[in-house]
Amino acid sequence: KIVDSTNTLNSKTGTYFTRTNEVHFITNVRLMNDEYTLRTDTLIYNTETQIAVFEGPTNIVGDSTQIFSNSGWFNTQTNESELKRNSTIKRGETQLQANFIYYNDDTGEGHARDQIVINDYENQMIITGNTARYSDFNRYAMVTDSAVWIQYYEGDSLFLHADTLYTIPDSTADKAKMLITYPNVRFYRSDIQGICDSLIYYTKDSTIQLYRDPLMWSSENQLSADFIELLNNAEPPNEVYLKNNAFIIQQVDSSKFNQIKGKNMVGLIKGETLYRIDVNGNGQSIYFPADEEDYIGINKAESSNIILYLSENQINRITFVGATTGNLKPMIEIVPADSKLESFIWREEERPLNRFDIFGNNDIEELPETLPSGSIETILPDIDTAKEEILLHPSEDQQLDFESELPDKNQ
Q: Is the pLDDT at 343 greater than 80, yes or no?
């Protein structure tokens, strides 16, 4: 047992080396002071520097922070730590896992690399990647290198990749955050997919904003504009706003495309289905009406405002508001060249097809083999429980109720 001005350290076996001022502790090692408690199986403590080097499953529990690691060191004077080999830090409602973590408990700042997983339990989101910098006190994190953001919901999750992910506080709501992603954004959810240069997500109301050449798909519909905003309302319907140069294309077959174009549009979504589109300003449309047997012609029309009603993701009815010009041409075998509106581009080949396709053709050295499919339930116990385990059961040298292995991607 060793007691200095701030620390009490004991174990079953200890050896003191006078030349190096080191004490080697083995079996049932406990290090305690006013700030934290530490438990491990093997520890080397320098009485001059007050740095503790540990090897094997180790738990460190402070007033607001919990740490688990298999290897590393901890400076008892500065409260700095370096953790290796699948380590975990939990502070408040945020939990960080990585194969390397540097952390300063006084400042709440650190960096990590290699197989990083950040869980934000309060906002139901996960960020993964291979390089990260973060600040617990400022609630800031930046992740790069195969960075992925996962927003998990009941029964479904949204997966997004970009070169860089930032999370910062949202000053407009208590405990809310903003996620800023750029460039080369690609995202996938079963009911909606998209790409753009940059995207912002607001946790307070789940609003998503897409900037710079945004493009989205929902079922057979391709949506584009200069700016796209998705509003997830507390009460249905949800809304999608297409601002400036709004264009919606719906593929009928390999040669036919229903098209809606206008200055601005508002789409209404119920459940996972887009059921109404309001075109506001400079409305143009081309669609292929059908009877019970086949398509009967090509309808081309222009009106300042247009309302479209969809059923089973197909245009069911169109209402023109204001002065209208247009015509219905009978169907012929060959679709005429003027069956596409100006600026028509069908970009289906860019559409993410699953949660691993969010990486697209980006130059990433090694793609992740697994991604969490939703909430990770394994979480470090609360502070009081962890302290009680260390103080009352010092002979148990295993991690406290925590498994760090991620769910299999096939689950």
A: yes
